[in-house]
Amino acid sequence: MLTLRAFSLTSLGLLTGFMAAAQTPGTAPTPTTLLSWVVWFLAGVVLLMAVMIAVSVTSTAQRRYEAEQGQPTAEVVVAQAVTVKEAPQVVLLEEAVYA
């Protein structure tokens, strides 16, 4: 009974909302709103590209800084582990996070 009542009230509310929206004049998007949608979309693309470039530059700078500090990189550790047969082999993998 509760499910039937909730379904009936929801469908009645949607039906009256659609009827009210159909009776309002000028429901078609105006050129101004279309232009603003295009501008906001382009702004979003530019923002996304800026974030991707910033992440790339930061990652490159971090790797360069680690190399200058003399810290062994993952490639050096792997190369050392491969050349030494007696020592346990340690392999460091860089994990990439894609959001």
UniProtKB/TrEMBL annotation:
TM regions (residue ranges): 38-57
Domain of life: Bacteria
Record key words, sorted: Membrane, Signal, Transmembrane, Transmembrane helix
Range of residues in the leader sequence: 1-22
Keyword Transmembrane attached: yes
Protein name: Formate hydrogenlyase subunit 3/multisubunit Na+/H+ antiporter MnhD subunit
